[in-house]
Write a structure and sequence with these properties.
Helix content: 25-40%
Order of helices and strands: HEHHEEHEHEEEHEHEEEHHHHHHH
Strand content: 15-25%
Distance between the termini: 29 Å
Strand order of the largest sheet: 1-2-4-5-8-9-10-11
Structural class: alpha/beta
């Protein structure tokens, strides 16, 4: 998905430890699922760029590709000037098959204000190739947001700003009359966007995670879980040219829903469920401030690791987080990510009392459901929990379990 052929290196280079739903597919609130390997998903596809032609200079046999795949994403543009030299040919050929298809744009900012220029470049290029976003068989267009190459190294785009991404997405949505898909991954959002993925929260997500067996992509902070999963960069795909007349390698992906749901998303009948982002645990770490930090501090105290509740994630809070992580046999890095959150946040029911309830009440108020922070899970708190759950399409039972906690802190 980038300017270089090595996807695994490109996506792993940052070394940062750390996936919205379309077409009616089921969404997991877990940060990483151990229940569904790629082989369990039946709707598969590939994505391509000039890299799939570079070794041989040969065309892709799209009819052969269509025999084993249902969809494809094709690189169209990068930045505000580059056009993939194979895009128009590949899009035309893929459109003559049963493959559901769409173009993608690699976001490569050269200034903090070129989001509109990149969007216009992508729109022009896609339209020139015959893509409209509404023809039968056309999937929504894709924005690819990841690291870039500078002097032979993979780095965060220096000029990347969430406002630019928002401008790009809204401009493309207006042009093609369809909600775009976003390709990224949690480690990029954490490492290059300070964990603030809210700009993606209203868009279906296409996330990468390679060689993980049954471990799905980690949820994007503030945005949610995956709709498409790029699970490998090196699967041999009949129809893709390889050196010395061999079958070439390509990125392989799965779709989380059914083929009927994907066809509906591609303007082929039926009504796909509207994209609905799932709850996603935020990453909270040293240097941050606010209600999520207050929540962490209150929950630590409730778990027996008392810390000052000041809403400031300082060294004292980091030390307590590490101590708690050790008791849970987690990596003691002092960073509150999805795994730490799920161990830290207890299931609370009406009648409960204490600092964990106070944390819940702070979160309810922060989410617009103001309630007195008295540490008592009484009728008023129960009513507010139910009201919040209804807004999140959760079971409105008034019990604060893992899903409700995740929805609260992923505002």
């Amino acid at each position: 998905m980038s300017t270089r052929p090595s996807h695994a290196l490109r996506l792993a280079a940052l070394g940062v430890a750390t996936a919205s739903l379309a077409g009616g597919a089921l969404l997991s609130n877990a940060p990483e699922s151990a229940a569904a390997p790629p082989s369990s998903y039946t709707v598969k596809g590939i994505d391509t760029s000039h890299h799939n032609h570079d070794a041989t200079g040969q065309s892709i046999d799209w009819k052969r590709v269509a025999q084993k795949n249902e969809f494809t994403f094709l690189k169209a543009t990068q930045g505000s000037r580059y056009q993939d030299p194979w895009f128009a040919r590949d899009f035309k050929a893929a459109s003559a098959t049963s493959l559901l298809r769409a173009p993608y744009h690699f976001f490569d900012p050269k200034s903090t204000g070129d989001g509109a220029a990149q969007a216009d470049h992508f729109i022009r290029t896609a339209r020139a190739a015959g893509y409209s976003g509404t023809k039968p068989g056309e999937l929504p267009p894709v924005l690819d947001v990841e690291s870039v190459w500078v002097n032979g190294k993979e780095v965060c785009p220096k000029a990347l700003r969430a406002g630019q991404l928002d401008v790009f997405l809204k401009r493309v949505k207006a042009a093609f009359k369809v909600t775009p898909i976003v390709y990224t991954r949690a480690s990029f959002v954490n490492g290059c966007m300070a964990g603030k993925g809210q700009v993606f929260k209203d868009y279906p997500l296409w996330l990468a995670r390679y060689g993980s067996g049954a471990r799905e992509p980690q949820s994007v902070p503030g945005a949610g879980s995956w709709t498409f999963w790029q699970y490998t960069e090196s699967e041999r795909v009949p129809g893709v040219p390889g050196a010395k007349n061999t079958v070439g390698k390509a990125d392989r992906n799965v779709y989380r829903g059914t083929l009927a749901q994907l066809r509906a998303l591609a303007n082929l009948g039926g009504t796909p469920a509207p994209p609905r982002p799932g709850a996603s645990w935020p990453t909270v770490k040293q240097g941050q401030r606010g209600v999520d930090v207050t929540t962490v501090q209150l929950l630590l105290t409730a778990r027996g690791h008392a810390v000052k509740t000041d809403g400031i994630f300082g060294s004292g809070t980091a030390t307590k987080v590490k101590a708690f992580q050790k008791t849970q046999h987690l990596t003691a890095d002092g960073i509150v990510g999805p795994q730490t959150w799920t161990r830290l946040a207890p299931t609370l029911k009406p009648g409960a009392k204490g600092t964990a309830v106070t944390a819940l009440q702070h979160q309810l108020t922060a989410n617009g459901h103001t309630v007195k922070t008295d540490g008592a899970y009484g009728p008023a708190t129960t009513t507010k929990v139910k009201a919040f759950q209804k807004t999140q399409h959760l079971t409105a039972d008034g019990i604060t379990g893992t899903r409700t906690w995740a929805a609260l802190v992923s505002r």
